[in-house]
Amino acid sequence: MGGTMSASFESVNDVLSATLSRLHELHHENRLPKGRLHRISIKTRWNAITSDKNECGLAINRTGVDTFYGTHGKKAIRTLRTLIGKPLFDCAEWGILSTDSLERSIGIACLSALSQKFLSCSGVRKRGYISQCWKTNEDFVKDFPPVSRIIHPEEIVAVVGNGCQIIPLHNKCRKLQVISLAPGETFESVVIDKESVGIPAAIEYYAPNDSEKILGAADIVFLNTATLVDNSFEKYINEAKNARLIGMYGLGTSLIPDAFFERGIGMFSSFRIIDSTSFATAMKNEYDMECSMKIAQKEYLMMRQDIAFRVPDHSIHPGCG
Question: Which residue in 171, 196, 268, 291 has the most C-beta neighbors within 10 A?
Fold first, then answer.
């Protein structure tokens, strides 16, 4: 892997390559040193990486840890070990150009690590976008989830991918539709008390082959970052051409939004990694990264200026710079 972008990379006109190009520009403009890949952690749902300069990144794992058993697993481990000590930019380029979903995920995790310096509210605003951030355990965030601030009660909302982070929105819109290979029971909660038994009635579940019909009729579409790993992103944003807003959500959306906003995405909802020590500890010791991300990191919502954004006055966080 070379130190500069190859001709083949420059010929790939997609949102990930554009994001990497923008990160090159931001690092050059700010005269920042470029880190090297230090450690990779493969988990059931997430792939995580750290650099020798304490940069941390995360991407969804579409293959699971089963990838590392048997002959194929030994080959995958050998391949990933060759990345250790390489510049993060080179590892990111290598990964996002790959057709292998594991390698592509590692590339996106490297993009995530390279993005963290540029996800502060002040930095995002300087680049012309709206940005707010919160600690997840604050009461007003629990009572009024950030994503709900751009949904109108009469709208139809469609979610592509693992919808667990979006499910609480079912009582804030007219209809919530989830497109996923996982069965509906994966996301639902049945609430029982003395007065009633509550089963979410406003949530509908569909298989991926129904996506064109569902996304074409939705007012708001949220895409999970699994669409970046399995390369279905372009398909879904084209199918959502009639939506008022297309947003990206999930832990894996810890990326600079610039190139996505230029492609028509209007909103990013994710986390900024502000505690690299907790992240590195979770890489080694946690079964999943979600607990660490939600407790030790900072939740953010970034939007284009032209998107209607409803924020209660008390939600402006004094520490979101």
Answer: 268
The domains located in the chain, with CATH, are 7-117 (3.30.390), 121-315 (3.40.50.11590)
Rounded Cα distance, 151 and 197, in Å: 26
Report, as ranges of residue numbers, the positions in the chain whose pLDDT lies below 70: 1-13, 64-73, 136-146, 163-165, 181-189, 196-202, 308-321
Rounded to a whole number of angstroms, the distance between the first and last alpha carbons of the chain is: 36
The type of residue at 255 is: L
Instruction: Specify the DSSP class assigned to residue 275.
Output: -
> Beta strand pairing status for 130-134 and 56-60?
unpaired
- Quick check: 272 and 57 in contact, CB under 8 A? no
Token pair of 51 as six digits: 């650099």
Q: How high does pLDDT run on average in the chain?
A: 83
CA 119 to chain centre: 13
Total count of residues recorded for the chain: 321
